[in-house]
Design a protein that fits this description.
The structure is a homodimer. Chain A has 16 helices and 14 strands. By secondary structure, chain A is an alpha+beta fold. Chain A has two domains: 150 residues, Jelly Rolls, CATH 2.60.120.260; 344 residues, Glycosyltransferase (Alpha/alpha barrel). In chain A, strands 1, 2, 3, 4, 5, 6, 7, 8 and 9 form a nine-stranded antiparallel sheet that branches. In chain A, strands 10-11-12 form a three-stranded antiparallel sheet. Chain A is globular, with a radius of gyration of 25 Å. Chains A and B meet through strand 6 of A and strand 6 of B.
């Protein structure tokens, strides 16, 4: 893929730089020494059992081919350090260790190499280190995202064994460890657990940018940013970090004014060559969400021209009737990783959604809403995607029925809520309909349900999907989840998956914002029922 | 092996610490990009061919599974750094590299793992590193000893390749790079080459102590120290470093006043549990050599008590007739790694040699020579090792004939030179006689030959043995050499051998000191012959 030229907007880059957070640190210690034993009832077919208490660890000695797994209790992002002590006649050689940082049990129960992944195996979370002059402290210079640490002693010598002492992680996040987040309205334990895991996910992704995944690929993606920012506004309320991320994108317009799908902070700010039409279009809504949540209209005004630029490429896909045509350019339309997805209907809904949000943003900052006519035309063209017999939206020449097409049509508000809700429900009941693969797409289905009066359906989906991850033992929500296949991966090898992934952190947003009224009414009804007793 | 208690002599340790050198640095760059191709005529069955000039290197790009070998032209000890550049659409993943530091071709032409070595495989000279945020500089924190650097690109990503730029080594040694060493008397090219390789070996082993090998095991051994010091006095003349090493041993007497065979500088000064009777005995001669070479009698006086202590354990092996009996204690008598060596005769010669040197040391510093009687008795007992029929010294109940027994008997000066010379020559001609394995033992054979009037024999042995290493391509002399077997190793795997090893650096000493008179006479004769023309 050839990259379009980017002209860096220095003023915006400087604004972003000035907003770069000092990361907050917490020191985290392992909680126990474990091993995994087979358990066919568990999602990962194994369960952890404690082999030693953590108090025992400093006195345990390990020689060649020994290994140990430490459980840090939950997912953390940070810098590992430990002391290598010795049980020695002589320390007459270096020690060679392999450290493997596991987000899930498979990372530490299986060999990572050779890998079947189609993407870079440099992401695999293992390191081999040679340590001279024991006893000594070891400070790993790289940042890792993990819950489990496996240490394999590749060799010591015949004259000494090693001990692992003062093992700790300097965990980092842009979010203050002590940040206070309001309690959920609902006291439902399972929903509170989803909220807690969402927050942990968001916290671990919130670094000097909102990363997509702190293990892989540690980058700011526009689509992920939008969902992280929404979740952030109703939890941690770190407006500065959201603002910084907006300026980072605004600093990197391509020559046609479109925005890159993602960007690199290091070694210097630069746009990735990836371009995604839907992500480009979602920049406007992301600015709108920010302005609405923060009240910072000044930033929205400053980014207004960028917003208009970001709509150009998406709009170029509209035919004269205002119908989105994915074939208009070869540019990537994403929506989800589900295989064979036809994006015409979903993109139509998404672009219409974005036009409406940008119109709202215009009003908010005193600009003329630029897309009133287009919204009208696109709304009119929506009917051409609707199959009255099947009562769902269909997409492309094969008239594909997918959950995500329904979701974005619903979110666009092009048709009455009850029609949208019926369409989503119909697709979800149709075993032949294309299901989403990523939490990113599941989010849009869940939000669409709730926005159309299907709050109970939304909750059921959340309990099934994010709840499924929670039941599988997730400490943070994953990049990809298939309840039937614990090895599901978009990359050919689940060891390359990210198990703390930004775009899956939205249950907090769904529970706190999208379902807010629903819970209020529910709570009110409950109070009334109680009063009547 | 249980370690005897060591009581650290703080005063001596402080003296040693004060003598710790600041290492001198040289920046060394690779000279060419090579690969090894089969060559059945070469010792290592391969030869290097240049695939790219070093000027081409910065522009070469390497992706997954590519590799490169850089040739630094000769052996160096130091710290590697390089810049990882990119040839990229996007640098969207870390890069994972395996670096292998080769002293000999096999290190970089073969897989090091799995290893068949019986000693710690943590010594194997390879590292796997993961590098974030390219382009970037990489500074390897550990010290390596090598000539060849193999870089294997384990992975980049599909979107970028890496380039290696500004590759360099900060080579370190206690010896000044610009140190002037007198020319040899002889202009023989081959002998001058041996002298040059000896100096390179000594330079690379001379760090904050005289290490046995800068690759493995980076420690100060007493027996190696003696030979390094002797070579040092006639080349670099770094008396401070020799003095420091003497004080380090003197700082670590064991409870019976014996000295450890080796010691660790880091992480703090401590004795290894290794004890070798012959190394203990050789401390006195090492002090004597130092005092004689440096003129620093003050140090010799201060170490006198330590010298006397170091003789106790060796002397405890003498029977009432003054005959050394290896069975008297279970302590390790080394002399050489040759398999099945009976040490009785060799140790008898060695201890007698040491007693005489200590008597000389006493005279030098105004003390009473302590071993006059013992020398007399031991000299008398020497005949019991001599087999008049075979005209060689035999050792132990099996009446073993070995080169090294003859060598130490000769060096002891117990019998007339011509008898000693005959004994060595006889053993060397006897195919059943046990040959040495290590350059350490070959040195003592070579020196013994020269000291007994067999200078030409000595030179022949040097040309055969050290010359054999030179012909095999040695940049520095090796821990172990067998002209018939390029994989010979005391450890079961030659990848664990050290190919820059202190105890093989003595050709310079042999050429400059032991053979000095011989060359002078030769030069004189040559001049006379020329004059007569």
């Amino acid at each position: 893929m050839a990259s379009k030229k980017t002209n860096i907007n220095t003023k915006f880059a400087e604004k972003a730089e000035a907003l770069k957070p000092e990361l907050h640190e917490r020191i985290v210690h392992p909680l126990s020494v474990i091993e995994f034993v087979p358990d066919q009832t568990a999602f990962f077919k194994c369960k952890a059992i404690e082999t030693h208490t953590i108090q025992d660890l400093p006195s345990l000695s390990f020689g060649k081919d020994d290994q140990i797994i430490l459980d840090f209790g939950s997912h953390h992002v940070g810098y590992l350090s430990f002391h290598v002590g010795v049980d020695a006649v002589d320390v007459d050689a270096p020690t060679r260790l392999r450290l493997t940082f596991g987000e899930i049990p498979y990372d530490v129960t299986e060999d990572l190499h050779p890998s079947k992944a189609g993407i870079s195996t440099s992401w695999l979370p293992d390191e081999i280190i040679n340590v001279d002059w024991l006893p000594t402290d070891v400070k790993m210079p790289r940042r890792y995202a993990f819950r489990y640490l496996k240490i394999e002693v590749l060799d010591t010598s015949q004259r000494y064994k090693v001990r692992f002492q003062n093992v700790k992680v300097r965990a980092v996040s842009a979010i203050l460890p002590a940040v206070k987040v309001e309690a959920l309205i609902t006291t439902d334990k399972k929903l509170n657990e989803l909220d807690r895991i969402s927050q942990a996910t968001l916290r671990d992704c919130a670094q000097t940018v909102f990363e997509d995944g702190p293990r892989r690929d540690r980058r700011l993606w526009l689509g992920d940013l939008r969902l992280q920012a929404l979740t952030n506004y109703c939890t941690f309320k770190d407006f500065r970090l959201a603002k910084r991320c907006l300026y980072l994108f605004a600093a990197l317009p391509r020559e046609d004014e479109s925005l890159p799908a993602c960007l690199f902070e290091k070694p210097k700010l630069s746009a990735a060559s990836d371009y995604i039409v839907d992500y480009d279009a979602l920049f406007g809504p992301t600015v709108y969400d920010y302005a609405l949540a923060s009240g910072d209209l000044e930033t929205a005004r400053e980014l207004w021209t960028t917003v208009l630029g970001s709509m150009k490429m998406p709009m170029s896909h509209l035919d004269k009737n205002g119908k989105f045509d994915s074939r208009a350019t070869e540019a990537w339309k994403f929506l989800d990783w589900s295989e064979g997805l036809d994006t015409n209907a979903g993109m139509h809904g998404l672009v219409l959604y974005c036009c409406k949000k940008v119109n709202k943003l215009a009003k908010l900052i005193g600009e003329e809403p630029p897309y009133l006519d287009i919204v009208e035309r696109m709304t009119g063209a929506t009917s051409s995607f609707y199959n009255k017999t099947l009562r769902v939206f269909v997409s492309g020449p094969e008239r594909q029925v997918s959950w995500i097409s329904q979701a974005w049509m619903a979110l666009s508000g092009a048709v009455d809520s009850h029609i949208s809700l019926e369409a989503i429900r119909t697709a979800m009941k149709d075993s032949k309909a294309l299901k989403p693969l990523t939490p990113y797409a599941y989010h849009h289905v869940a939000e669409a349900l709730a926005r159309c009066g299907g709050e109970a359906d939304c909750l059921k989906l959340m309990r099934d999907y994010w709840g499924g991850m929670a039941r599988a033992g997730a400490d943070t929500f994953w990049e990809c989840f298939d309840a039937e296949d614990s090895r599901r991966s978009p990359y050919g090898d689940c060891h390359n998956n990210s198990y703390c992934h930004a775009w899956s952190c939205t249950p907090s947003y769904l529970l706190r914002v999208v379902l807010n009224e629903y819970f209020k009414v529910e709570a009110h009804n409950w109070t009334r029922l109680t009063d009547q007793k």
